[in-house]
Structure formats: structure tokens, C-alpha cells
């Protein structure tokens, strides 16, 4: 079967939430979706629960082996995915409504974008987060990967997730996407997912990325940044040094 979208879900000991995530996908109004579970050798009932879903849904694929963290699992998913578009979903997240993927598919058909993104809903952000981004906004805050759909060709153009950044490799990748002239971006004002607070990146500080982020933004996008943002980034550099 040809898939429009592959949903990649990194998992590790998520027996309490994986069923809700899968139900939100399988209840979508469009069915041309591959569900790729990239598991890090869970020791709880995660794989058993997923196997129960597999008996009824041939579009669910499982790959389980030791990995080097969530971004390593996401990179493995990129290589294995059969869909033209990739979506990275947390095992404790759910799609916002049962027509979410239908709306995204419509946007894909009407645009020549490489990257399509919307909003997420979360108590962490007291509601909907966070509208359209530009390079200046992205230099100071990230887009949740649960809000983003990537054409698979993006990863050939600018590479995969950098495993050097343990908690914010997605932010690094987003900066490379937005600051690149090779990538066409399209914002759609819809809420894509219910983003569960307490994920790895929200609970962990990435010291290496925090130090390099202002330098990277200034180097890659100086001509794309507002004067106000440039001042803020320089101020961060001065604090670091």
C-alpha cells in the first residue's frame, strides 16, 4: 500500500499511554497512514499492547532494538518509513480531532510546501501553541514536533536529527529547516495534536544546544532576524562567555 503519511512513534515503557495514541490515529477519517513504532526494547507491556492492535491493523509496523534516545529512534524511523510525509508523535500524545489528518492531506494537495505545520494544544502552554513562526520567533522558542509534517525529501536536503543534542535536536533541526532557502514552509491555522506535558525535551535541559543556539541562529540567519532578536541573541552570548 502507498502511504501519504507515516506517523513515527518512539516508544519505551509507555504501556499506560500508547493505546490512546494509537486510537487517535486509527480513528482518523483518512486511512492512507502508516504507523511506525520505533521501540527501545521496552520491558513493560508496550509491545504486547501494540501487538494486539497489529492483529486488526496491517498498517502498524514495529521495530524494537536498543537505541541512543528519542532522536536516534526518530532517525531510524526516517529510514524505515514508507510514507511521503513524516509526522513524529509522542507515545503520550493524541491527534486533536478525527479529521486532523484529512485537513493536513488537503493542505498537502493544495501546496508545494516541504514542511507543513500548525498548532498544538497543551496545559503546559495554557491552551493553543503557538501560531505562525518566522526565523526571529524560532530563534527564541521552538515549534513542537507534534505540530509538524515533513516531506521526506527534507532529510536528504538538510540531514536528520543531530544526536549531539539530547533534548533539543528537534529545535536544531527546525532552525536548519527555517533558515534554509531549500525548504518551503506552510503554516495552517489548525490544532494538530494534544501535546502531553512531561515529555523528554520538556523535562530536560540541553546545555550543549543552549550554548550553541544563539551562535547558530546568528550564523545561519543574521539577514533573516529582526534587530531586536539579534540583540537578544548577542545578550545570551555575552552571558555564556
Structural descriptors:
241 residues, alpha/beta, Spore Coat Polysaccharide Biosynthesis Protein SpsA, Chain A, nine-stranded mixed β-sheet, 10 helices, 39% helix, 21% strand, globular
Summed up, the domain count is 1
Could you describe the largest sheet, including whether it forms a barrel? 9 strands, mixed
Strand-and-helix sequence, N→C? EHEHEHEEHEEHEHHEHHH
The number of distinct β-strands equals 9
Anisotropy-based shape: globular
Intertermini distance: 54 Å
CATH hierarchy class name: Alpha Beta
Query: Could you give me the name of the CATH homologous superfamily?
Result: Spore Coat Polysaccharide Biosynthesis Protein SpsA, Chain A
The CATH topology = Spore Coat Polysaccharide Biosynthesis Protein SpsA, Chain A
Proportion in helices: 25-40%
Architecture overview:
The mean pLDDT is 94. Strands 1, 2, 3, 4, 5, 6, 7, 8 and 9 form a nine-stranded mixed β-sheet that branches. Helix 9 runs antiparallel to helix 10. The radius of gyration is 18 Å and the shape is globular. The longest helix is centred in the last third of the chain and has 15 residues, at 207-221. It has helices at 18-26, 46-54, 70-80, 100-110, 135-140, 154-158, 169-178, 200-203, 207-221, 227-240; strands at residues 5-11, 33-39, 60-64, 85-88, 94-95, 115-122, 127-129, 148-151, 185-194. It is α/β, with parallel strands linked by helices. The chain has one domain: Spore Coat Polysaccharide Biosynthesis Protein SpsA, Chain A (Alpha-Beta Complex), CATH 3.90.550.10.
Amino acid at each position: 500500500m502507498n502511504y501519504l503519511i507515516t506517523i513515527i512513534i518512539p516508544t519505551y515503557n509507555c504501556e499506560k499511554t500508547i493505546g490512546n495514541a494509537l486510537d487517535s490515529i486509527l480513528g482518523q477519517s483518512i486511512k492512507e497512514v502508516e504507523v511506525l513504532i520505533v521501540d527501545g526494547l521496552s520491558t513493560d507491556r508496550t509491545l504486547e499492547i501494540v501487538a494486539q492492535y497489529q492483529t486488526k491493523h496491517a498498517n502498524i509496523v514495529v521495530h524494537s532494538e536498543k537505541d541512543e534516545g528519542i532522536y536516534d529512534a526518530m532517525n531510524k524511523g526516517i529510514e524505515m518509513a514508507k510514507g511521503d510525509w513524516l509526522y513524529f508523535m509522542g507515545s503520550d500524545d493524541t491527534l486533536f480531532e478525527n479529521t486532523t489528518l484529512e485537513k493536513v492531506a488537503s493542505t498537502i494537495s493544495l501546496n508545494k510546501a516541504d514542511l507543513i505545520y500548525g498548532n498544538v494544544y497543551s496545559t503546559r502552554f495554557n491552551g493553543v501553541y503557538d501560531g505562525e513562526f518566522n526565523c526571529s520567533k524560532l530563534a527564541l522558542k521552538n515549534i513542537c514536533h507534534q505540530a509538524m509534517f515533513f516531506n521526506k525529501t527534507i532529510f536528504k536536503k538538510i540531514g536528520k536529527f543531530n544526536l549531539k543534542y539530547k533534548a533539543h535536536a528537534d529545535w536544531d533541526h527546525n532552525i536548519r529547516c527555517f533558515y534554509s532557502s531549500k525548504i518551503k514552509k506552510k503554516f495552517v491555522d489548525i490544532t494538530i495534536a494534544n501535546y502531553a506535558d512531561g515529555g523528554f525535551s520538556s523535562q530536560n535541559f540541553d546545555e550543549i544546544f543552549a550554548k550553541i543556539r544563539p551562535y547558530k541562529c546568528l550564523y545561519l540567519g543574521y539577514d533573516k532576524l529582526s534587530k531586536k532578536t539579534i540583540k537578544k541573541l548577542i545578550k545570551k552570548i555575552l552571558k555564556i562567555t
